[in-house]
Design goal:
alpha+beta, 9 strands, globular
């Protein structure tokens, strides 16, 4: 009888201790974390929490501690919509290492060429503020490969790898910050009709470069854990191939990011335009 009573007392004591510990956690750290996740910087805390669960440094390469302009951009657009030089390098360098390419080195002192007032116009939309290292589509393909078991990848076609396409396929954009839209606009129009639609949209906009959009697609997939941009359409770009057709990128499914071309007189719903905001 004494032993049974003793065991009940010990069990009650254990339950009490566990209950007190759980209550302390719920009232303390967990409550604090919940409030932060639901607060104005919730997206940043969610990203940090995911990194912590992967046993990574939650605040590695935090742009908020490095550049006030970048911090303001993140506050306006959200952390998932701002790709800093550090984040892009961190995401793409494993691909470059696998391909035997030199690692990307984040530059110092590169200012964001858009004011806070301009960025506020794009809060809550499908706009990204991205740092581009100016990587050409050819080099992007070399980095990512064509093996669909290793995501992200490029679709395995090679027409644009031939020497006669070198004039455009090997030339990326000038490295720097770009404000780009991931929304495909002006489908079912010819290339020239799209140009008129861009002018009508506003003098501050232009057709985004296809090399830039390829780099954005790879970066978004890696930085935002599988996000797949341009999945259901092609972005009709600026470059002319050796036959005089305009180059396009997109249809980014598990088979890979596609690089295609098309006659400027074509007008299909899946041929659209991603816009880029001109520099101020």
């Amino acid at each position: 009888m004494y032993l049974k009573t003793k065991k009940r007392e010990e069990l009650t004591m254990v339950k009490t201790m566990l209950g007190n510990a759980l209550h302390a956690v719920m009232r303390g750290p967990l409550k604090d974390l919940t409030e932060k996740l639901m607060g104005p910087e919730g997206e940043a805390w969610e990203v940090a929490l995911k990194r912590f669960l992967r046993k990574e440094n939650p605040w590695q390469a935090s742009p908020k501690k490095k550049d006030s302009a970048v911090a303001r951009a993140i506050n306006v657009l959200g952390e998932r919509r701002v790709f800093t030089p550090e984040c892009v390098a961190e995401s793409l360098n494993p691909l470059r290492k696998r391909a035997g390419l030199q690692p990307l080195v984040p530059p110092q002192g590169v200012s964001v060429p858009y004011s806070h007032e301009v960025l506020k116009q794009y809060a809550g939309g499908k706009w990204l503020l991205v740092y581009s290292y100016g990587i050409s589509l050819r080099e992007q393909r070399l980095m990512a490969g064509v093996d669909s078991s290793q995501q992200p990848c490029f679709y395995n076609n090679d027409w644009w790898l031939k020497p006669k396409e070198d004039s455009w396929a090997t030339k990326g954009v000038k490295p720097g910050w770009y404000l780009v839209s991931t929304e495909g606009r002006f489908g079912s129009q010819t290339w020239n009709q799209q140009e008129q639609s861009i002018r009508d949209f506003g003098e501050s906009y232009e057709r985004a470069d296809e090399h830039l959009m390829g780099e954005v697609c790879l970066s978004a997939h890696l930085i935002n854990e599988g996000e797949r941009l341009l999945e259901n359409f092609y972005h009709w770009g600026k470059s002319l191939d050796s036959d005089g057709d305009r180059v396009r990128v997109g249809a980014f499914d598990r088979d890979g990011l596609r690089v295609s071309n098309g006659w400027v007189g074509s007008s299909y719903g899946y041929l659209r335009v991603c816009l880029s905001r001109k520099f101020q």
